[in-house]
Amino acid sequence: MHTKRYQVFISSTYEDLKAERRAVQDVVISTGDFPVQMESFPATSEDQFQFIKSLIDQCDYYILIIAGRYGAVAEDGLSYTHKEFRYALEKDIPVLVMLHAERESISVGKSENTDNARHLLDEFIKEAETGRLRKTWNSVDSLKLAVREALEHAKATNPRVGWVRGDSVASVYALKELDKLRRENDEYRKTLGDLQIDIPLPDLPAPNSRTEVVLQPNFHNGLTGSYASIAADWISLFPLFQTSLDWHTSDWDGEYMYNINREKSQINLGSSIAALFGPIDTSKYFKVSPTSFEQLESYYIEAGLLNAERSERPFTDAAEKLGRRHRISNHQPNNFEITSGKIEISQPSVGWGNDDEIPF
What we know:
Blueprint: E1 7-11, H1 18-30, E2 34-36, H2 46-57, E3 61-66, H3 80-90, E4 95-100, H4 115-129, E5 134-137, H5 140-157, H6 171-192, E6 210-217, E7 228-233, H7 238-244, E8 247-252, E9 255-260, H8 262-274, E10 286-288, H9 290-302, H10 317-329, E11 337-341
């Protein structure tokens, strides 16, 4: 499994939180990730803010530190920290809120000194902590611990794209390239007859090779599942993939081709995998991520179990036989394991109270 690194944007007012920002930067670096912050270029104009937005676009997580100041106000009446926060939400970047627990104890020099500024700060805090997880802190050390816990929780429950080393090719990319080359080879054969074209292809991983499938929550009947990463042999996943695939056949100018309903298939497969880990009814509360679904699809095409979508039916004769053998033997997969996150069903997290500490 490749080691993934994340870009983490650190946002706060500047002059009053220099030490805290350095501490958070050190925590992010110690976890192997990349801090993104504007220490020498705090936002003081719209032109600078446009540049900062471009940096936020590239980040996986956003840490918001709030203490005793609201910050410099732009022409639209919002501080630049407030504008950064709203932009991160607009881009669906997970926000980790670090709220000072004892604002009344903050020194006068690091607090707002007008009623209007204090009102703006109170409104900002209310907006930032409503409907999302947040941690409180009252010292640099407690802030460092809160950030570390928040990042660990975010990575486990809401994994992001992140970065891997350039010499580590993700298996899903390799499989897609392999399938692309196979399709091109087929086209060459149709055009050139039986001319043999030798195209070097990477080997398909062994059937017992482990792969990781990411489960995402799916909102259904007022409830939702949780995030989790599941490791299993890719061949052991096939029976679940086969029974979960939602497909239909269409007539295209007299030629029949099957098409996959990917959204329904991802929900069917995610719910089936989640059902392996407990007695709860997981139907429609989980879904496999699009990337994980495409990865499995590529495995099965290259293994000769799944036809490409230009075919009349999805599964090959070998796949149908494999499915029958599993049903005859009543095979139950026993090598699935949760590598991160958990399998549970709950109500969406909204309207957290301000007085309760919300654990990551």
